[in-house]
Predict the structure.
Amino acid sequence: MPDTTATATTTDADTTATTTDADTTATTTDADTTATATTTDADTTDAAATAATTDAAATAAAAALRVAVIVGSVREGRLGPTVTDWFLKTAGTHAPDLHLDVIDLAGVDLPLAMPDWGGAPTPQAAAALAAVSPRLARADAFVVVTPEYNHSFPAALKNLIDWHREQWQAKPVGFVSYGGLGGGLRAVEQLRLVFAELHAVTMRDSVSLHGPWSGIGPDGEPRDTAVSEGAAKGMLGQLHWWARALRTARTQHPYGA
């Protein structure tokens, strides 16, 4: 007589094993589905972040470049404003898409005394900074108009530079210099060292107005107009390239020095 009990037991065991296998498969499938869904969500988030960065970079590339033109001399009888006016006119001809913001240091009342690290500026300094610092921060590039004093540049210009740091970083700086046989070039070479320390990029070519040969005449124009305008055009071309490239880079990867 067949062993019915043994057969039933075996069948139950087989059924249980089959059910267990099915449950295990279902559990594994659910886990795989969950993992796939999580990966898909992460990929979607990454794609959205990439798209947002790309859109921001495209917006930055399309916007007009802002250039702060800094008049470095504050002496009475200075030629700085006259040189600046000529440069603005020249820039309007050769780089009309630039938005130029003139910062004349004769109107910036920054004190020489600075607070200690972590200290607060005086009310006088705070008021002056509130007027000038946002303009430097908004700028995509700078052009410094400077004379040469004793083989260097004016103290007022160094004071403005030293009151700021992040505003200069990862931005290009061009120079328009004037004065004497050297045309202010020794002042420019000193400024290159200063701006390198502040993580700024100085333009290889500059504009220099030399003594009686290419200096500013009574009509407010350089005596050697062709040479001076050619130098300005070259410097502006470099400034334009670096300003756009660095602005796009700062938008995609904020600079941290």
Observations:
- The CA atoms of residues 57 and 248 lie 6 Å apart.
- The longest strand covers residues 141-147.
- The helical segments are 4-62, 80-94, 123-138, 155-162, 185-197, 211-214, 225-252.
- The chain has a mean pLDDT of 84.
